[in-house]
Amino acid sequence: MSTADRGLSVSGLSAQTGSFTLSPVNLHIPPDRVLVILGPSGAGKTVLLETIAGLRPANDGRINLAGADITGLPPERRRIGLVFQDAALFPHMTVRENVRFGPRASGKTAPNTHDNLLQQLGISHLADRSPRSLSGGERQRVALARALAIQPALLLLDEPLSALDQPTREDMRSLLRRLLAELEIPAAHVTHDRDEALSIGDDLAVIVGGRLRQAGPAGRVAAEPADPDVARLLGWSDLGLGSAADGTVRIGQLSFRDTLAPGLHGPVHAFYRPEDVHLGLVPPDVQTGPRLTAQVEQIVRTRPLARISLGSDPPMMALALHRDVDRLGIAVGEVIAVTIPTGSFRVFQVG
Fold first, then answer.
1. Which candidate, 29, 11, 25, places its Cα nearest to that of 70?
2. Per-residue pLDDT at 50 exceeds 80
3. Are 82 and 39 in contact, with CB atoms under 8 Å apart?
4. Could you give the residue ranges of the DSSP H alpha helices within 159-217?
5. Thinking of the domain 236-349, which architecture would CATH place it in?
6. Highest CATH level, class, for 4-231
7. What is the pLDDT of residue 266?
8. CA 212, 213, 216, 218 torsion-angle sign
9. Per-residue confidence (pLDDT) for residue 1, from 0 to 100
10. What distance, in Å, lies between the first and last C-alpha atoms of the chain?
11. Region of residue 83 (phi > 0: left; psi between -120 and 50: alpha; otherwise: beta)
12. Which of 23, 81, 197, 255 could be joined to 38 by an S-S link, Cβ 3.0–4.6 Å?
């Protein structure tokens, strides 16, 4: 079987729940790739996952997994491992019994598989514990081990980290990134957290309002969002409305060449990357774009970067290292030089 045949292919898949409709989705996940499905709450991410898993009927479309059409199969025959936000462990079973449950139910027990998984996920010492006595991160590790114990052809993860505290979430991101890289099966991970999406995913699919807006390699989607909604979800900041003519965009006192869409003309909506905004002198290796001066209106020392609000026209924000804020002597009320590198803008036609 070829690599392509061992992956997941979704063609024209649509579903309905109440008044919500998931528009036809086309996706492919090779066996050595992790697809992260990103979108706001209520976008249809979970509906898509549940339809692929067979927990929700499809209105239309086909699902092919490992070379077989599984569209009409019941969930238990799809060979799909599932990890949910709340872990969904059996409270009356120990950790070991939870991990053993799937293989025993299917009659496909393999010697020592559960023990190997417990060790791989760093929870061997919890084998005889009740799920009620575990922390959130420990419960999710058990849920992951249980999903993998059935030796699935596909792994689906529905916001498994969203209920965890920040340090635990970061630890679990690292674990997932390592584990998913080692698996030779396709995996789809649902989240509304862009940092999580970009740290885990090889590929990225963005769903908004029940419609797949963009899909592709994660780095490319993050650098070239297809529309304003995708741009906002991926951390681009709204620069406002302006006009474009002859490849030049003007918004307030800001004017720049649009290298990604030079053919735009008339009303436009622009976005920029706050982390790309340079304050003070510009390093010599930076390909510079428009320059202006602005008064510093507010400094919020969040971690790891400080957020600096600028009274420019249009208003902008910069993200800077704390040591750079101190080194440059940036203070509220100061007037400072502002430079935005070429390529740090994304512009969309209005209307």
1. 11
2. yes
3. no
4. 166-182, 194-200
5. Beta Barrel (2.40)
6. alpha beta
7. 93
8. negative
9. 47
10. 47
11. beta
12. 197
- Gap between the Cα atoms of 177 and 191, Å rounded: 14
For the chain, the structural domain boundaries read: 4-231, 236-349
Q: Counting Cβ atoms within 10 Å, is residue 240 exposed (0-12), middle (13-18) or buried (19+)?
A: middle
Q: How many CB atoms are located within 10 Å of the residue 272 CB?
A: 25
Report how far residue 158's alpha carbon sits from residue 174's, in angstroms, rounded to the nearest whole number.
17
Is-contact 57 73, C-beta < 8 A? no
How is 12-51 classified by DSSP, letter by letter? Answer: EEEEEETTEEEEEEEEEE-TT-EEEEE--TTSSHHHHHHH
243-256 tens-digit pLDDT: 999 889 999 989 98
Tokens at residue 73, please?
């199969």
28-49, pLDDT tens digit by residue? 999 989 999 999 999 999 999 9
The two three-digit tokens of residue 182, written as one number = 């080692």
CA 331 – CA 221 distance, rounded (Å): 35
pTM value > 0.85:
yes
Give the pLDDT confidence score for residue 191 in this predicted structure: 94
How many CB atoms are located within 10 Å of the residue 32 CB? Answer: 16
